Amino acid sequence: MPASCPLCRADGETVLWQNSRLRIIAVHDSPAAPAFCRVIWREHVAEMTDLPEEARQEIMAAVCRTEAAMRQVLRPAKINLASLGNQVPHLHWHVIARFEQDACFPDSIWAAPRREAELALPEDWQRQVAALLAAEA
Which Pfam families match (predicted)? Predict the structure, then answer.
């Protein structure tokens, strides 16, 4: 585990679900996307093809479970999935609920805002998503 990798460390995270191979967290540092989760593979690998087939299936199943739970709780206009890793080369997936009233919609959450966000998300959406993830595990 590289000491400089922020995804290898689990400091101060809101963990929604985890097992010995991966964890699903709520992301709080993205004001453009207030309903944002990350599925993080625990082992420090950079690419999906660094994993054996069974592990690839496991992480993708977790991404799909996260998407389904977020859709059920939040009713977004769209879910964005992304696996970038250019800045942090540790395998992880972004699962981002998008709303027509969010600051950047329909552009990427990393684009310049088009408007002030006008969202009314359930205050306990993270707890609700965590409960659904636990029920599906």
Answer: HIT
Percent of the chain with pLDDT over 90: 75
**Cα–Cα distance, 26 to 11 (Å, whole number):** 13
Q: What is the CA radius of gyration of the chain?
A: 15
Number of helical H runs and strand E runs in the chain: 2, 5
Q: Are 31 and 72 in contact (CB under 8 A)?
A: no
Question: What's the whole-number mean pLDDT along residues 31-49?
Answer: 92
The DSSP letter of residue 54 is H
Sheet bearing 92-98, strands edge to edge: 14-18, 22-26, 36-41, 92-98, 78-82
Distance set, CA 1 to CA 13, 50, 51, 68 (Å): 18, 15, 16, 31
Q: pLDDT band at residue 1, thresholds of 50, 70 and 90?
A: low
Q: Label residue 1 exposed, middle or buried (CB < 10 Å: 0-12, 13-18, 19+).
A: exposed
Rounded to the nearest integer, the mean pLDDT of the chain is 92
Strand, helix or coil for residue 8: coil
Pick the more confident residue, 86 or 108: 108
